[in-house]
Amino acid sequence: MTENSIATGRDVGAGGSESTLKGRTGPGAPAETRGKTTIADGVVAKIAGMAAREVPGVHKLGGGMARALGAMRERVPGTGSGVTQGVKVEVGESQAAVDLDVVVEYGVSIVDVAGDVRTSVITAVERMTGLEVVEVNIAIDDVHLPDEEEESDELEGRVR
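RE: above sequence
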């Protein structure tokens, strides 16, 4: 029998890497450890994106151009909600690293929000995947002012 381990494989069709959780084998092994579980990078990115968005003081994720493209992509039916916008992950054998592009609300402490985002992302990813999160890098790209119009309104055009 072998201990639980995590190995990385490549999903050639999708072009992304995945994390594979392998359980112990043999007749004496508990049923929940028999077989393997594969976790795609996109799954880790979605978990991290949702956890970051739940933190008070986070307005949006993504840099300026990424947000503009995301707003246009959301208008196309069937393209999804862009949960992974502003999120990049690297998944290894037993560890993951997360990079986030964040826009914060005006008036909040950026240091406090960044700390809360790190805590939220690490907790969610480690609890849901079993991977160890070795780092969460946060780039504050902008501060959302209360009187700013949403960028999606700007993309609609000048005439209403």
